[in-house]
Amino acid sequence: MGKTAWINDVTTDGLTRLCLVTAVEIEFKTASGLLIESSFEDEAQMRVCRGRFGDRQVTVLKSEMGAFGFAERLAAHLADNQYDALIVAGLAGALDPKLKTGDAIVFNLCYNERTNAVGSISREKQLSREENASIACDPNLSRFITETLQASGLSCIRGAGVTVDHIVNRARDKISLGIRFNALAVDMETYDILAVCAGSGLTAAALRVVLDEADSDLPDFNRALKPDGQMSKWQIASAMMISPFVSMRFLFSLRRVVESLHVNLKAILNAKDGFR
Predict the structure, then answer these.
(1) At 51, phi and psi to the nearest 5?
(2) Could you tell me the pLDDT band of residue 152, with boundaries at 50, 70 and 90?
(3) By C-alpha distance, which of 190, 238, 252, 249 is closest to 215?
(4) Where does residue 238 rank: exposed (0-12), middle (13-18), buried (19+ CB within 10 A)?
(5) DSSP string, 120-179
(6) Residue 254: its pLDDT value, please?
(7) How far apart are CA 225 and CA 165, in angstroms?
(8) Which CATH number fits domain 4-220+227-270: 3.40.50.1580, 3.90.45.10, 3.30.710.10, 3.30.420.40?
(9) 1, 18, 63, 184: which has the fewest Cβ within 10 Å?
(10) Distances from the Cα of 10 to the Cαs of 67, 84, 100, 142, in angstroms?
(11) pLDDT per residue over 28-45, tens digit each?
């Protein structure tokens, strides 16, 4: 499976200080909207929300899509703030045709398919899945998340993810990526975030909710993606006008997926056993 870094393997007891990392605004708003007594600030070009959920202190960070340059900011943040665990939480593209919009995926590990990722390996060594770098999520935290969701009546599946440096908008490319890595989902941030946590010795896991199914195309949002990870609204509109049917399906799915992310995160934050 290639070189795998295991993130600090500890029990899930005592998770009273939790950090959630999101990428885009809709994920950030969904996570921060669950908190009370929340406050917002900008910290070193990073949007931060601090608040409470029950007895837990929760901090939500926004990395921007692709998390370009976020690794350094996150490492500095973790050096100045103490957490019991970190969960990467957000949306993803499905790589397995059996997965449907709204399905929750808890990563076992995440492969790196980015040439500029933290801990990335040379392109020459990225010719096969066996030679790709990967980072495993904390198995106890991943299991806790899975069991918590199942106990709440929510379905989820455990499996591998892949982090890439662009939006995979074509169905055939998603299918191919899934076969190559034997992975369930693709995103643009998880690997770098897990790499920073591994370097900091912080327990970490990843929860992703399927936005676009493996056999469905997306509008070409890559044309709207800026170097800092933000999206140009004009370019988004242009991309959606080029593919109106695909865009309507995307917008229809988005609301349902945000609701799924909200419900899954709420169940995790509301869990009693293991979080005290």
Answers:
(1) -165, -165
(2) very high
(3) 249
(4) middle
(5) ---GGG-SSGGGS-EEEPPHHHHHHHHHHHHHTT--EEEEEEEE-SS----HHHHHHHHH
(6) 82
(7) 11
(8) 3.40.50.1580
(9) 1
(10) 27, 10, 32, 11
(11) 999 999 999 999 999 988
Q: Position of tokens 């599946």?
A: 157
Q: What are the tens digits of pLDDT across the range 85-114?
A: 999 999 999 999 999 999 999 999 999 998
Q: Which residue has the tokens 């990967």?
A: 134
Q: Residue 276 corresponds to which tokens in the numbers above?
A: 């005290």
Distances (CA, A) of 211 to 38, 39, 84, 254, 259: 27, 28, 29, 7, 11
